[in-house]
Design a protein that fits this description.
alpha+beta
């Protein structure tokens, strides 16, 4: 764990379930980023987790990017970048 920024953070969000050790939490973050990539690609977006800082980088076509701290903020940011509702559970 990084003593400066605390990455990977201790479990707190339900998506971190099963992450007892820092290595487990990094594996969970990598798997989550892959799933987000598949979900967001239908909206022309991409999510990346650089594993070095807390949060995710959300990118849109044209180079627009925003750093979001967690999944809750990701969906709001996705809607701002696309200008339309983004429902992760919708069948696109």
């Amino acid at each position: 764990m990084c003593s400066g920024c605390g990455a990977p953070p201790v479990p707190g969000h339900w998506t971190d379930a099963g992450g007892a050790t820092p290595a487990d939490r990094l594996r969970i973050r990598a798997a989550r980023a892959q799933v987000l990539g598949r979900v967001l690609s239908d909206h022309g977006l991409r999510a990346a987790d650089g594993m070095l800082v807390p949060g995710l980088t959300l990118s849109a076509s044209g180079g627009r990017q925003v750093l979001v701290p967690d999944l809750d903020a990701l969906w709001s940011a996705a809607e701002r970048l696309t200008g339309r509702p983004v429902d992760p559970l919708a069948d696109v």
